[in-house]
Amino acid sequence: MTYWCKKLSLLLVVCVMFTGCSLGGKEQETSDPVTLKVLYYSEEEFYRNYGMLFSTLYPEIEFEVISLQRIYNSNEEDPVKAKQELIEKEKPDLLLIDLYDLETLTEKGKLLSLDTYLARDKINTDEMVPGIIDMMKEIGDGQQYGMPSSFSGRVLYYNKGLFDAHNIPYPSDQMTWSEVIQLAERFPADGEPTDRIYGIKLGYSGKLNEISDMIMSSEGLKYVNEATRQITVNTPAWQEAVELAKKLTDSDTFYRQDQQSSPMSMTYQSYLKQNPFLANRVAMLLDQSYLLRELEEISKLGGDNGDLIKEWDMVTVPVGEQNRDSSNGFFLSEVFAIMKDSPNPEAAWKLISFVADEEHTRLKSKLGFGRGLPIHTKYIRDDAGHHFEAFYKLKPSFNKKAAVENRLPDSFYNEFYWMKDEELQAVQDGSKGLEEALESLQARGEALLARTDASGDGSKPTEEVTETELPAEGLEPSDAPSEGEDLAADEEA
Known about the structure:
By secondary structure, the chain is of the alpha/beta class. Helices cover 39% and strands 12% of the residues. It folds into three domains: 3-151 and 332-396, D-Maltodextrin-Binding Protein, domain 2; 153-190 and 265-324, no CATH class; 203-253 and 409-493, no CATH class. It contains 17 helices and 14 strands. The chain has a five-stranded mixed beta sheet with strand order 2-1-3-13-4, with helices on both faces. The protein is globular and about 70 Å long.
């Protein structure tokens, strides 16, 4: 039986236990049948994640799922526009959307404020992750238009055994990037590259572009000011961030993916050992909450697993020098929202309140954290006493986007990302100095911005487009992150 089959069996048992009962101590209501139109990735995913348990408790509410698969599978040139057109055409009652869509639809006045429902049903948001609720209200200019179902986050995991063996103090919350790099450099760098230990691993590719993005994001640095239409890369702040990233990528304490030796056979243990942190070869790892599942599985293996990590903990992600209380390590991919013109707002709210209820969160937390962390802080924990507060101790950094009419299309950010990758790869290879690379990137970015504005539709420019070699991980140009994101953000999915 697979991992998720076992988890689903547990969920079905829970459903049976609670049939005829109510979550959160609320009495079930009998009402006329209602069909809710729900926008979600797929019908199967919706029922597995939400609809199955909800329908067991509220059989009078049925669902018509408007699947987004048709957009994602059709290679739409502008999937954001296609999604908006689908919403206008199908007119769903309930949406499960990301932050970008939440902000756009809120700004256009398409969503229903949840404040009245929250107050009426006495939903206590004070016990939820505070920064996430604050983010919802910031998007709505003081009102709450969305309710997250869960969140994922990044933390700095560390191997307590390696720190103890080398008499190095553990990392702590709210360390800056400079402090984390200094700590990593205290680990020895002797031995064969494929066998020795390393101080830290960040990201996937280990390229200067990827690592500098992490540092710049924590400092709140942007590629472009959308409102003033100015490229903002050739600055002392950008230069300082890239220099710090280069110091790390040039260091022998930094683990790169090409330092991984391939196993001869693929048992589950050998699969786990492909992650150098789990294999006791990396002292610190910046990674997402999904890693908790593998750490939990290791603790259950038993037997002779001496090569796998035993003692570990986590602290907050590295912070910026000017932003020590905020984090760019929060990810919200599924936020519930009700369309303002929905004919079934009460039924839609019933599903939202069901998901937001503490009892539902308690039950879902028993399935582990593979699908994200609970929105109620009291269930973000384990029996071993690990420092789970690291996931929500910092305030999520969130910068509201420019007004809809000023926003640049994804095609601009995709193309600019690859320009930046090309320029910073030249810096990493030593074929360009950093000042020269930033000057070139500034000029190329300004030319791209002018062409984007002139085209009116964000279409890819036809001149000065250099074909860049795709990275080893096989990303297509359309997979490049938008501003404020990084490649790690998609790994959990």
